[in-house]
Amino acid sequence: MQTIDLNCDMGEAFGNYPMPNDAVLFDFITSANIACGFHAGDPEVMQHTVFMAVKKGVAIGAHPGLPDLQGFGRREMKVSANEAYQITLYQIGALYGFVKAAQGKLHHVKAHGALYNMAAKDPALAKAIAEAVHDFDPTLILYALAGSEMITAAKKTGIKTVSEVFADRTYQNDGSLTPRSQANALITDEQQSIQQVMLMVKQQQVISIDKRSIPLKAETLCLHGDGAHAVEFAKLIHTKLKAEDITIKAPVIE
Known about the structure:
Blueprint: E1 3-10, H1 22-25, E2 31-35, H2 43-56, E3 59-63, H3 81-101, E4 106-110, H4 113-121, H5 123-136, E5 141-145, H6 149-157, E6 160-166, H7 190-203, E7 205-207, E8 213-215, E9 220-222, H8 230-243, E10 247-248
Parallel strand pairs: 1-2, 1-9, 1-10, 2-3, 3-4, 4-5, 5-6, 6-9
Antiparallel strand pairs: 7-8
Helix pairs in contact: 3-5, 4-5, 5-6, 7-8
């Protein structure tokens, strides 16, 4: 039986929690990547988001990003490997405090935005992030782009990996995501997104922007929660996967 995890970036706000979609999205996802303060999130938002995840039984992940509030962590910054290690470790620790206070369990780590994309291609940054996760808790899972340098680094470091694919992003011929700076980076057509999801989950491949078939490993599917129709799309994907007898559940920590 095929299995897939549905993850979503959550708690990406400041005060006045919850964000419009967060509370409802928890009903359709199995993993939540919670912002840790560097690209979004503050102590109040982290506390409430963690509480909601525990209440809903959703696996909790730290979502560390670059220290770039104004750019929402989506602008590349020149950081050394050691700096990447430090900011990752720091943010995991920040979220862990709220997880422990809520009597929850930290399940995984997923880098955010530019940090995620940079480390997907840069072996030194990938190694630094993997080592930060390992040094904090070697039982944590690293969520990372399928086929990326982060997957390779994590395996060398000795931590479990979960390969991530995206419902609403286009892919390059090398299996990387099309940069958001390009006009065709996002898939806005709902049916096109669903077709891509089913191809990735059922056949472990994706069609690149140049119409090439690219093999990939699909273990967790990212659903972005900040779109105008995010809740409706999450519900639609959830329903479609169920109809195809695909089990939706979070990866198990061994």
